Amino acid sequence: MSRRRRTIVLRRIAYSVSLVIVVVVGFVIDWVSLSDSMIRPSIIVDQFPRIVTVAARNTLIFTFFGFVGGLMIGLVVALGRISQARPFRIASGVFVDVIRGIPLLVWILIIGFGIPIATGVRIPGAYGAGSLALAIVAGGYMAETIRSGIEAVPRGQMEAARSVGMTYTRAMWTIVLPQAFRIIIPPLTNELVLLIKDTSLVSVLGVTAGTIELTKFGRSASATAFNATPLITAALVYLAITLPMIRVVAILEKKAAASR
What we know:
By secondary structure, the chain is an all-alpha fold. It has helices at 3-28, 31-38, 41-47, 50-81, 86-101, 104-119, 128-152, 155-163, 168-198, 214-225, 229-259. Helix 4 (50-81) runs antiparallel to helix 10 and helix 6 packs across helix 7.
């Protein structure tokens, strides 16, 4: 038997086994009980409109502050990473390594509880600690994305700008950075999608009824109703928010690949 023929046979066996498993699982599962405990329409109806007007809105607010703050922090750190001044390069490198080496949940706890205990300074605002933690961690990741975008711009662009009398700062802001951001739009959009899901960790800070986000909303409602339907509804709202963005990332990546 040829290699190609053997591959086809193995693939058909795998498909057949998968189909048998799906059919067996389909017969074993108690669909009535499953739908009653996870997709009960009356509970879904009860969640609206608060799951959209409060929970989804707060998720988007945390995402907005986290993304904008992360973008600003990431830009500053990225410029530090490519700076000719060694102290800036070292400090920026340490920041990126420390941020990326510690889980987001730990950062949220440090910023939300650790810093106020250590310094006596409380971060103001209903969205303050959560948004700040998201921004700092997102900034650590975005810094590497922005740095790679800047380094992807041909060096000749900077040299040409300097040769016509532009300062380094002006050439960076008007020539290099616009091109770099065009390059990194797909990975930045991907960071945005990840950030939307990471907002679920903000609930460890003890969000209030006014700042509750989707995951906490779903958990609380599930505990009250003793049913998993609110969590499934929250998951569907997450999908409604993230799927269009994932589609946008795919389109941008396809356009970027076609332009190369």
